[in-house]
Amino acid sequence: MTRPADGDPALLPAHELARGIRRRAWSSVELLDHFAARVERLDGRINAMPVRDLDRARDAARAADERLAAGQVDGPLHGVPMSVKESFNVAGLSTTYGFEAFRHNVAATDAVTVQRLKAAGAVVFGKTNVPVSLADWQSFNPVYGTTNNPWHLGCTPGGSSGGSAAALAAGLTALELGSDIGASIRNPAHYCGVWGHKPTWGVVPLVGHELVPMADADAFDIAVAGPLARSAHDLTLAMDILSQPLDATTPLGRLPVAWRDPGLPPRRCRVAVLFDDAEAEVDASVQQALRDLVDFLRRDGVQVTEDARPVDSAEANDVYLHLLRAATGSHYDDATYVQVQQRARGYAADDRSYAARHMRGSVFTHRDWVRMDQRRSGLRRQWAAFFERFDLLICPVATTPAFPHMQSGERWERMISVNGHTQPSTDALFWAGYPGIVGIPATAVPLGLSPQGLPVGAQIVGPLFADPLCLRFAQWIEDHYRAFVPPPIALEA
Questions:
Q1: Which are the contacts of 69, defined by CB distance < 8 A and separation ≥ 6?
Q2: What CATH topology corresponds to 14-308+390-491?
Q3: Which of 22, 215, 245, 484 sits a CA distance of 20 to 30 A from 363?
């Protein structure tokens, strides 16, 4: 197979691979075999793609090549090999969410998002690893084991789309489909040095992303599905496929999705930047990457304001943690619900620890939820007022770069190092919920490497339905500031 002059095609963006297929630089079968060989050679150390479907994928790739030879192009991803997060149903493959009890839970149909990607020409050849119940910023489970960060095998790749980001960074796949309720797209992108987009809530359907008995759910509070990629340009291409303007499968029903896109050139955007917050102290390595970005933006004429805060941070964190856990706790069976109720009663009413809010939120009554949702409405109004003054907010995705594997104890008991002292790993969820709780879009972009050689990124946050603006700004950063840089393991011959 012909390789580009600057290196391995497996490290190119998906849109360039698609163009190469259409121009006959390589065939779909050749690309698939090339990715499969890299998975075989590298994934024993990373364990990003434990589920592989190569026989059916080769049939699909061969058929794509035949259609192209006959002059037929299926769509913008014609013949491009890609993988999807394990939690999305792919007909004939298991969907386990990392639960041993679901090891043999084989999907009968594709998730709606998978259907759309295939209809656009994608060849799905595998599924990538996740934490149990998609509930961690690490990706390990009893079914498929632990996924390692390709930049440092002793560190987490993030979660819950950890396998997705690790596979992209290592050049094991061309494009990925993830999901996000607690930065599960943005966090792995930040930890692995790739791009990810958390869409506006409701514009990408979740049908086929839930375990039974919720397999036909079209929405889940706060949760979204969205792409991860080696390029912001690929995110835009994928969002055009995943979100459709007239869509009965999303909470928006058949109402048209009115993208809020003023068409502003990036240099004319009014940008606010946050470096830190009392709710979740940010490590100096992350803050420095943001300051370097600010220097670049100002040199290029962008109007930047530092430390303008859109909402009350403590209020945002409190609402997010309770409603996040109300959502994730909604699927508890009766026995588990009773156990969590008992644990929740052990915390004082004014206890604001993560553990207390986790337990209380998980067993919210409907009355509790409605009252908290009313507080969320207040946050939406604050964000709307903020976006009257600014076009975009850039802020951290997490408090640190990727941390070493920690797999024992509760998440809030696992401590990470921040500026020379320890911090509960769950503190970083504050940055996940900042845009997440009100359903606004956020695009994760890589900015550089920490002094320890680990990726550092940020998230570009926009108003409701301003996904195109976030993505266009991310493309500009990629084109003029930092393009994809592969980890050393990805360059091994």
A1: none
A2: Amidase signature (AS) enzymes (3.90.1300)
A3: 215
